[in-house]
Write a structure and sequence with these properties.
23% strand; 263 residues; globular; alpha/beta
């Protein structure tokens, strides 16, 4: 049985030159109806005003903690530094430009406790750089298997939560991209299937020219996951990429919905 008391949730947030978004991201955590959380922000040597903005929140809210890396090392290293300091019963992830809806934690933790799930995630909506809805909701299979996840990362990083009691603290790859996918693969390799909260609980910001905004630019990083995380040879890794592309083009679009209010 998972603990039915109000557990502490550790929220892992890397930041880098996020002065335009970080305040709104932090406020979306502070606005949670679920109050027992700690937000651990690790800044990856920002050169703008990100760090002073974070410091102002730290000074006014004891649940927020911030640290700085000594040199720019990537989001994976920053997340690991935050993970080392996490004290929570659950680990959650939120990037410095994304947002949570107010009932995100309360809904998701209750879902996990009601169904005795050590890991879950949720659907999420897409917004643009200015925070305006793009009229798109990203969903996922209601029962997600390891095999499905192997060919496509259906799990938004901003939506995943796992139990530390069940998994321990899962180390995050130092690769600069796709670290979240590797964490979810680690989890599903152990529990085989996962269930999402079947509603949208967060907002994912799609930024112009960002790596995640272009599937083409992510191809080499997906190849690296097969080649170096799974330790497949080059030929097998390329075969897996064929399956990945098939899923991206023909299967995953079924899980992207146009929001009625935006039609």
């Amino acid at each position: 049985m998972l603990n039915t008391a109000l557990p502490l949730v550790s929220i892992i947030t890397p930041s880098f030159n996020s002065e335009k978004y970080i305040a709104e991201t932090i406020k979306s955590v502070q606005n949670q109806s679920y109050a027992n959380w700690e937000l651990i922000i690790v800044d990856d040597c920002s050169t703008d005003q990100t760090e002073p903005i974070i410091r102002n929140f730290v000074q006014s809210d004891s649940r927020i903690h911030s640290y700085q890396l000594k040199r720019n090392s990537g989001a994976g290293i920053a997340r690991n530094e935050a993970l080392k300091r996490a004290k929570g019963d659950y680990i959650a992830f939120l990037d410095s430009d994304d947002l949570w809806k107010p009932k995100k934690l309360s809904t998701q933790i209750k879902f996990m406790q009601d169904y005795e799930l050590p890991f879950t995630f949720s659907f999420y909506d897409c917004i643009n750089e200015e925070g305006i809805s793009m009229g798109k909701r990203v969903e996922a299979p209601l029962v997600l298997s390891y095999y499905q996840l192997f060919f496509c990362n259906y799990i938004g990083n901003l939506s995943g939560i796992y139990s530390v009691d069940y998994f321990g603290k899962i180390p995050i790859s130092p690769f600069r991209k796709r670290q979240d996918w590797m964490v979810w693969l680690h989890i599903l390799k152990e529990i085989r299937t996962a269930r999402p909260v079947p509603e949208s609980l967060a907002y994912y910001r799609i930024r112009t020219n960002s790596m995640s905004s272009s599937k083409g630019r992510l191809l080499k990083h997906n190849f690296f996951v097969y080649r170096f995380f799974h330790k497949f040879n080059t030929v097998l890794s390329l075969c897996c990429m064929v399956g990945f592309l098939y899923t991206q083009l023909l299967i995953k679009p079924q899980y992207s919905k146009v929001l009625k209010a935006e039609m």
